[in-house]
Amino acid sequence: MARAVLAAAAEEERLKRQLCLHRRHLRLNSMPTDLPEREFVALFRLRKQQFFALCEDICPKLRETQRNTAVRPEIKVLSSLMIYAHGSYQRLSGTNYDLGLSQTTVSDCLSEVTEAMNSPDILRKYIKFPTTQEQREVVSRKFMDKFGFPGVLGCVDGTHMSIIRPSEFEEAYFNRKQYHSLNAMMICDADLQIIHVDASFGGASHDSHIWNSSPVRALMEGLHEEGEAFWLLGDSGYAQRPWMMTPILNAAPNSAEEHYTRMQIKTRNVIERCFGVLKGRWRCLLAHRTMHYHPVKAGKMANACVVLHNLINDHTVRFDQETQEELARDRVRQPVLEPARLYGPPEDVLIPTRAAIVQRLWRSRQEN
């Protein structure tokens, strides 16, 4: 009996060593960049040239080790890209490609790469809010050229990403759709580039609360006080301010106010398209693809996906039917809009800037 147990243990150990050697062989001989470009993009979302550029930025930030069994930095990045792109590290149907990593190693790689991509210099390089007047005018001009809406610096909204139930402060993450999530506030420009992200709030937080806690709100208020005529576009979940243009609810049919609201909604729709592209490409963020990580790590993964979204800088992608269906499920899982509560001055004090835009858009329509 004892001999049989020892033999079984020895055989198990032999199989473990064999598996380790097999994985090491795969890692040492794995050349992902030898894949055809189309297959590489399907697996990792980036083009090869973009992947090389990313590696130049973050590989120096990854831990180095002299062990001959160490995972190459490029493989660490690729394994993380697969998780961001597909929601898990599993061999994908339709491909035999394998990076030769155990689940534990993949988890370690994901943590390391995600931390590297959240380095302040990386976030500053790829996620840029317009900080100079010249930059603001360029962004605003693109919105005007594409949508005919003046003065826009970006469109803002929140999107929910599902996480497992946290062990601490669980109630802060439980949203109105009855699941645990992060509510990530993002601002995008007319080209669907994300110029600001804050994925640190739980799903119980209202969009307006996150906005009022944001340094961008203080920046926009400061620009207004300095006389710069720029604003963001938000839905009725945000309070109307001279630097935040919201829809006019219950506007009279065929009125200047209704025309303004149609233009505002049409322009603001870029943030919804942006969310669709972001989550369609980086599917770990989909609301029904629960991230099994601590909220802080999940938020950093969201930041990493935003960096990658901006790196790709090509948002004309067409998704297959399966991805479109997943995006539809994600929209259903988003909590319903709750109108903002207005704190501070009465709304009639805050309307003049919006009223001027209403009249400008109405005159433009009549002239054309």
UniProtKB/TrEMBL annotation:
<dbReference type="GO" id="GO:0016787">
    <property type="term" value="F:hydrolase activity"/>
</dbReference>
<protein>
    <recommendedName>
        <fullName>DDE Tnp4 domain-containing protein</fullName>
    </recommendedName>
</protein>
<dbReference type="GO" id="GO:0005634">
    <property type="term" value="C:nucleus"/>
</dbReference>
<feature type="domain" description="DDE Tnp4">
    <location>
        <begin position="156"/>
        <end position="310"/>
    </location>
</feature>
<keyword id="KW-0539">Nucleus</keyword>
<keyword id="KW-0479">Metal-binding</keyword>
<dbReference type="GO" id="GO:0004518">
    <property type="term" value="F:nuclease activity"/>
</dbReference>
<dbReference type="GO" id="GO:0046872">
    <property type="term" value="F:metal ion binding"/>
</dbReference>
<keyword id="KW-0540">Nuclease</keyword>
<comment type="similarity">
    <text>Belongs to the HARBI1 family.</text>
</comment>
<dbReference type="Pfam" id="PF13359">
    <property type="entry name" value="DDE_Tnp_4"/>
</dbReference>
<dbReference type="InterPro" id="IPR027806">
    <property type="entry name" value="HARBI1_dom"/>
</dbReference>
<dbReference type="InterPro" id="IPR045249">
    <property type="entry name" value="HARBI1-like"/>
</dbReference>
<keyword id="KW-0378">Hydrolase</keyword>
